[in-house]
Amino acid sequence: MRITGVRAILTAPEGIALIVVRVDTDQPGLYGLGCATFTQRPTLVSRAVDEYLAPLLIGRDPRNSEDLWHLMSVNSYWRTGPVLNNAISGVDMALWDIKGKIAGMPVYDLLGGKCREAAMVYRHADGRDPDEVLDAVRGYREAGVLAVRCQMGGYGGRVGSIVGSDAFPGAYYDPDRYARATIELFDHVRAAVGPDLHLLHDIHERLAPIAAVGLARALEPHRLFFLEDALPPDQLEWFRRIREGCATPLAMGELHTNPVEWRTLIAERLIDFIRAHVSAIGGVTPARKLAALCESFGVRTAWHGPGDVSPIGHAANLHLDLACHNFGIQEVPGFSDALREVFPGTPELRGGFLWANDGPGWGVDLDEAAAARYPITAGVVGWTQARWPDGTLWTP
Question: Which of the listed residues 105, 129, 164 is the one where a domain comes to its end?
Answer without folding.
Answer: 105
